[in-house]
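Lay summary. Proteins are chains of building blocks that fold into shapes, and those shapes determine what they do. In this project we predict the shape from the chain. Here is one chain we studied, written as its sequence of building blocks.
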Amino acid sequence: MNKLTIDIVSDVVCPWCVIGLKSLEQALARVAPDISAELRFQAFELNPAMPPEGQDIGEHLAQKYGASAEQGAANRETIRARGAELGFRFEMAQRDRIYNTFDAHRLLHWAGLMGRQHALAMALFDAYFTRGENPSDRAVLEQAAEQAGLARAEAAEVLASGAYAAEVRELEQFYRGHGISAVPSIIINERHLISGGQSPEVFEQALRQIAAAG
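And here is the predicted shape, written in a compact code that computers can read:
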């Protein structure tokens, strides 16, 4: 069996990161048991200066990308449909704000040390994209940790203490310094970069080629 290391540079408020992850999961299921992978979620904040109260999503997209209301609606429908194909439910009407994600990344870093990072990432995606909850709210983060099989009291302690802030900032600087400017960026064996929410077929082909090349 060939085992790969896959770094997933992503943000919990990035819908294409959900799509990329779900596509990758399907690809890994297709190549099993010949190829397996260790998934590591790496911090990337799309909006590091976002205030705690967040910003209206329509206003944010218009300011950042110049997207009109019509373009925004079309993009949301594309995302909803892609998610449905992959078994993930985007409830667009529930999600009306963009939030700061620094604490979410601190919690994800801790979850990685506990071996529950993948589960927490999915719990955070569910909280934000399906239920419309605020991923900068500590009660939401604690609930996601519990959903992921982590101790809620320990998660609360991590969040209250400011733990792993330096580690998260260091990771963010590392990836930006290595040219990562958009997410998801999926890096296989620390050498092969696949950008964006690609299809399961694209990921499957890449996994097989990289594994065959050794």
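What the prediction tells us: The chain has one domain: 2-49+101-213.
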